[in-house]
Amino acid sequence: MSPQSDTPPPATPTALWANPLRQALFETWLMGLQAAHQLDPQSVRLASADASFRRYLRVDSSAATGHTTLVIMDAPPDLENCKPFVQVSQLMAQAGLKVPEVLAWDEANGFMLLTDMGNHTMMQVIDPKAPPPLNRYLDAVDALLQWQLASREGVLPVYDQPTLMRELELFPQWYVGAHRQFQLDATQRKILDDAFAKIVTSNLAWPSVYVHRDFMPRNLMVPAEDARAAASMGAGRLGVLDFQDAVYGPITYDIASLMRDAFLSWDENFCLDVTIRYWQKARKAGLPVGDDFGEFYKAVEWMGLQRHLRIAGVFARLTLRDGKPQYLADTPRFIDYIRATCSRYMELKPLLRLVERIEGIPVPSAYAFGRM
Questions:
Q1: What is the DSSP-derived secondary structure letter of residue 372?
Q2: Interval 296-343: pLDDT, tens
Q3: CB atoms inside a 10 Å sphere around CB 273
């Protein structure tokens, strides 16, 4: 049906929309898709929201495609660019990964109709109090290897030195300054600058592949039939979400993201075990992970350090600028990661002492600032 029709579009639940104009645009768009996909506008409900300005709705469908529900991405175009999502979803699908299929896209208004990946993330089916589920993590490793093996230069944005440094600056700006209200003096700022330079040099010493950037259980989907299963889901059965920020960067990044999760922590021995298994599989597959696991593991730790400094800043910004305080509750996990990594390497000890000073953790007198 044409938008110029005199027939008003079917109403969707008003409670879903703070902006009546955007609601009207959405209803007109949805009406244009209603017949082709057998959509029920009255069934539209909130599915989830994330740390960006995107949110996801779910709608019932009786189409012959076999989908009983579909997902709608609501991404205001002045706040979110959907082009990377479409590009990366195609790249992942070509690599054999299970990702949402784009069924319709209103690029001008920021609405997208997607196949539904289900209700259960890998994180939701994990019991953090039970032993870590090795089989599920090995499924994630297999999906990661598929993604990395599809890598080609010149396709995705490069995760380069300026980008890594810009991300690190979120830590002093938003976490240290805005959240902790800690004013760095010249000596402390130099400690930070020196550490940032060493971290980024380490990060960029490793070859580049496709990088998801948030490859963790929260963004990996378990098929409905396996949601309650304790056994392995089988290689390649995990769905992948939240991939629109993918880049071409260090091969150490996504395994660091998986095993040093922003929302879930495991014992170091388990993280080491899965990382070794990943490294062994990656070497066998011909991926550039080197021949010395010790060197690779150090690089993963230093890549994780960059990530956690960045995320601490991002989560502080989400709270202070964007009004999403729930994310800041996880920052103690990041500080623990940062301290654990820094404590293992002499060249990072000044950063360790500075972070402890910012956190109000007593600093040994031998390391008192001004006498380092």
A1: -
A2: 999 999 999 999 999 999 999 999 998 888 888 888 989 999 999 999
A3: 16
Residue-number span of the structural domain to which 76 is assigned: 14-115
Cα–Cα dist 217/118, whole Å: 14
pLDDT at site 1: 33
Closest CA to 243 of 213, 207, 279, 283: 213
CA 282 → CA 92, 156, 179, distances in Å?
18, 21, 39
From 214, 255, 239, select the one nearest 121 (Cα to Cα): 239
- Between CA 27 and CA 30 the distance in angstroms is 5
- DSSP for 148-205, written as a single string: HHT--TTSS-B--HHHHHHHHTHIIIIIIIIIS-----HHHHHHHHHHHHHHHHHHHT
Residue 299, token pair as written in the block: 């690089």
Residues 153, 159, 192: CA angle, nearest 5 degrees = 155
Q: Could you count the other beta carbons within 10 Å of the beta carbon of residue 248?
A: 18
Considering the domain architecture, whether residues 171 and 281 belong to the same structural domain is answered as yes
Residue 143 burial class via C-beta count within 10 angstroms: exposed 0-12, middle 13-18, buried 19 and up: buried
- Compute the CA torsion angle 260, 266, 268, 273 (nearest 10 deg): -90
- Return all residues near 239 (Cβ < 8 A) that are at least 6 apart: 98, 99, 100, 117, 118, 220, 221, 222, 223
Instruction: Mark which of 68, 85, 115 sits at the end of a domain.
Output: 115
**What are the Cα distances from residue 39, in Å, to 9, 64, 293, 296?**
13, 12, 52, 49
CB distance 304 to 311 below 8 Å: no
Provide the whole-model pTM: 0.88
pLDDT in tens, 66-105: 558 999 999 999 999 999 999 999 999 999 999 999 999 9
Q: Which two tokens stand for residue 138?
A: 């090995």
**Residue 254 placed within a domain:** yes
